[in-house]
Design goal:
α3 runs parallel beside α4, α4 packs parallel to α6 and α10 runs antiparallel to α12. It is built from 12 helices and 10 strands. It has a single domain, classed as Alpha-Beta Barrel (TIM Barrel), CATH 3.20.20.70.
């Protein structure tokens, strides 16, 4: 159901508010550059700093701008199960193609708690659900066995965004849950994941080079492994630069350099350190972006 390059789109701000005009422009940019789907209100979209009203406004804006030309997978996760249900119901009502639900953060639930959380959300809606596993942000790892239990009992859980950083875990997920799509949550691991049965990526770097990320996946699917590898190694230094500091600080800074957005961040996200900014500039120049 979900394959190809999905962009974890930034939320552009202007004078402290969501810049809806710029958000519409960014959607058009991705439609024109081969992006398969757009993921608003994810980590890269600074969802943790958005009010409930802004969260819904961003999702609605992306859905209306996409006009069904690309899929929209809205970030609707929360560490509050009731809030996750409410946001996911909204995504369903507004016409999203799917909802991305991060594991509850800060609470540090047990594996049983994770199962009960995702089952409660899945049971409350019919929209396709993508589970997001990223222990570095949530403090808990959704074990493959736990995911398999969820998938077995919830038919609308159709995919997982795996950002564990472990290809072994990704392979185990694919083995235990063969019916669901496995999407990379790490740009650097997209091609390796495709080689063991993954279907695509929810990408940070695609915010600035969507054509190359989409091209790498398309080349792999077409059997052109030489081209896929060339794009993989071309992308790697830029991908590394996207995580010099906490995401989305580098990618927003890079987009501002390209005139794609104002680069405005919300506290506690802040401007890059000068030394790291220089490293980012170097990576962008070497890629040919500046």
């Amino acid at each position: 159901m979900f394959e190809g390059s999905y962009v974890a789109i930034i939320t552009p701000f202007k004078d402290g508010n969501v810049d809806l005009d710029k958000l519409n422009e960014l959607v058009e940019f991705h439609v024109a550059n081969g992006t398969a789907g757009i993921v608003p209100c994810g980590t890269t979209g600074e969802s943790a700093t958005l009010s409930h009203e802004e969260h819904e406004m961003v999702i609605e804006t992306v859905v209306r701008a996409a006009k069904k030309r690309v899929k929209v997978m809205a970030g609707t996760g929360s560490n509050n199960t009731a809030e996750a249900i409410e946001l996911t119901r909204y995504a369903e009502e507004i016409g999203c193609d799917g909802a991305l639900l991060i594991a509850p953060y800060y609470n540090k639930p047990t594996q049983k708690g994770l199962y009960l959380h995702f089952k409660a959300v899945a049971d409350a809606v019919k929209i396709p659900i993508v589970i997001y596993n990223i222990q570095s942000r949530t403090a808990v790892n959704i074990l493959p066995e736990t995911l398999a239990r969820i998938v077995c009992e919830c038919n609308n859980v159709v995919a997982v965004k795996e950002a564990s950083g472990s290809l072994e875990q990704m392979a185990m997920v694919h083995a235990l849950c063969p019916r669901i799509d496995v999407l990379s949550g790490d740009d650097a691991l997209t091609l390796p994941l495709l080689s063991i049965g993954g279907t695509g990526v929810i990408s940070v770097v695609a915010n600035i080079v969507p054509h190359d990320v989409a091209g790498m996946i398309s080349a792999f699917k077409a059997g052109d492994l030489t081209k896929a590898r060339e794009l993989h190694y071309k992308l790697l230094p830029l991908v590394k630069a996207m995580f010099i500091e906490t995401n989305p600080i580098p990618v927003k800074t890079a987009m501002a350099m390209k005139g794609m957005c104002a680069g405005e961040l919300r506290l506690p996200m802040c401007a890059m350190e000068d030394a790291n900014r220089e490293k980012l500039v170097k990576a962008m120049k070497e890629y040919g972006l500046l």
